[in-house]
Hints:
The complex is a heterotrimer, with two copies of chain A and one copy of chain C.
Chain A: H1 3-14, H2 21-25, H3 33-49, E1 54-59, E2 62-67, H4 72-77, H5 89-101, E3 104-105, H6 106-113, H7 118-126, E4 130-135, E5 143-147, H8 149-155, H9 183-193
Antiparallel strand pairs in A: 1-2, 3-5, 4-5
Chain C: E1 15-18, E2 21-24, H1 32-43, H2 52-62, H3 71-89, H4 104-130, H5 154-167, H6 183-196, E3 199-201, H7 212-227, E4 231-234, E5 243-246
Antiparallel strand pairs in C: 1-2, 3-5, 4-5
Amino acid sequence: MTPLAQLIEAALFAADRPLTAEELHALEPDRSVDEMREAVFQLRDHYAFDQHGVELQELGGGYQIVTRAVHAAAIERAQITARAPRLTPAMLETLAVVAYRQPVGRAEVEEIRGVSASGVLRTLQERSLIEVVGRSEGLGRPLLYGTTPLFLELLGMPDIVNLPRADELAIALAPATPEPLDDHEAAAYVDADA
Amino acid sequence: MTPLAQLIEAALFAADRPLTAEELHALEPDRSVDEMREAVFQLRDHYAFDQHGVELQELGGGYQIVTRAVHAAAIERAQITARAPRLTPAMLETLAVVAYRQPVGRAEVEEIRGVSASGVLRTLQERSLIEVVGRSEGLGRPLLYGTTPLFLELLGMPDIVNLPRADELAIALAPATPEPLDDHEAAAYVDADA
Amino acid sequence: MTLVERPLPIPSSPMAIDSSGFVVELESFSGPLDLLLHLLREEQVDIADIPIARIADQFLRAIHSLGLNQAADYLEMASRLVRLKVQMLLPRREDEEGWDDPRAELVRRLLEYQQTKEIALWLGNAAEQQSHHHARGYLPPLPEAPPLPLTLDLIDLLAAVERVVTGIIHPVLHRVVVRPLDVEGATERILAVLELHDACDWREVLGSNPTIVDILSSLIALLELARRGILSLNQPSPFSPLVISRDPTRPAN
């Protein structure tokens, strides 16, 4: 391949969209747009002649490298392009709060995490990891959330009581302001010196 | 190119991460893993021999097609794609400790770096460069961290064993350091002066 | 160790000089060990033989202009250095065998940290090299297929619990216990002793069965009286008792 075709191949590979001949021109402003277009066709012919697994397509006025359709079935079957979706940190943190505080309302989740929670709660609900388990007695009777059987299933746990207790965690989830020295202890401490 | 190399090229093009030989095997379960690996090397050699703008790299235990470094400047100048954000010194130091001591807890990272580490550990976790790999047996059962395949991908390394060995570094740790004075001895030492 | 005082070197980058002394841009340092290594390099001294007194002074000066978010880490190191400085300044008995250098632990940590920095540099270079290789930019839309099962494991969930908990801001309450020091009483006692003697021993001004409060009160009273020139404090030789003497220019009333 010519150096110009190499450069075009690298650029088309790295781009997240089809690139027009003008955009490709920015790669090598010393060459003309026509020269760039010619190199694009050279790359296209090379892919076809050498029987590559990819081909060059002209899409919406630009050029793009795509996999050849003949391989699509095998790639889809192997599910190579899809990853098992993992939960985002925000989803995990919200799930953590719900798991340990259920039944819990949106306001409490937001207070603990310090950010708005409505979007994440809805996503978790759509994915059947949490569900509405009741309404609070408080003002406006807000919805209360709890975890679902699917949540336990994904964790491989028979029951919610199998979650490590809060006091087994590095820092307990319970409202934990460090206990200050009480008056009695403080007094004893001074006495010891006397 | 052979039909198998074509298929592999198409699959590697379609994926957004390195694919292992086992994952590629799912494309053609009738062939052996060794045959797949051989076809991968054929593809690699083809890219090198025909002077393509892309090359095949072994990264984090898998294979990935990437652009050749020589084209990076032109691609960035033409604003076709941006470079990944740089890692800060704090992130690099923390990665260094995690990479060499994994599985490692937050306390050890803090002891070595002399600064609190929770913020930077969280950032590295959110960028999927480190992950929780277990819990220590110690007090409070703190979380233990290790590096991810993305860490290797980012550094262009096939495997964690490709990191330089400690004895290859300019500064090797002294085998034994004398025990420092502990508080008890230090106190006795001061008393002797009174 | 050598305690020969040299004039302080003019700090070079990333230090900057202004009228109020020199200011360190702490953003340039990734922590107290980094700052310490920088000071040692500036001084061109061997890590294994740190002139603690001088380095401790420079460290304290450097953190003077510290932003508060990292203050605790730097202050902790500063207190270690000051303690080491004190330990190094304490006189040693001639007959003392097997004296352990109190700097050993710091030296070990500095070497370990220096190695970490070297690895970090290597990692940074590797990442820089790899950043010249671009991966595929365009990703084809996912095929229409039933969504894969979610993955969720307990470790991820517990890590999230820890992140949530560490994010909660607890009000921290400190209770300060006031211990009454009787400096005035101690002052009177010391002056009373010096009425009778030109000089006396430290133990004589304490009274019998002194409590820790008495000792502290007496110490502060002594220092205050010495500062005002009413008495002088003297230690004739290492390990000998302190001699408290009335200022000879002031006659006993």
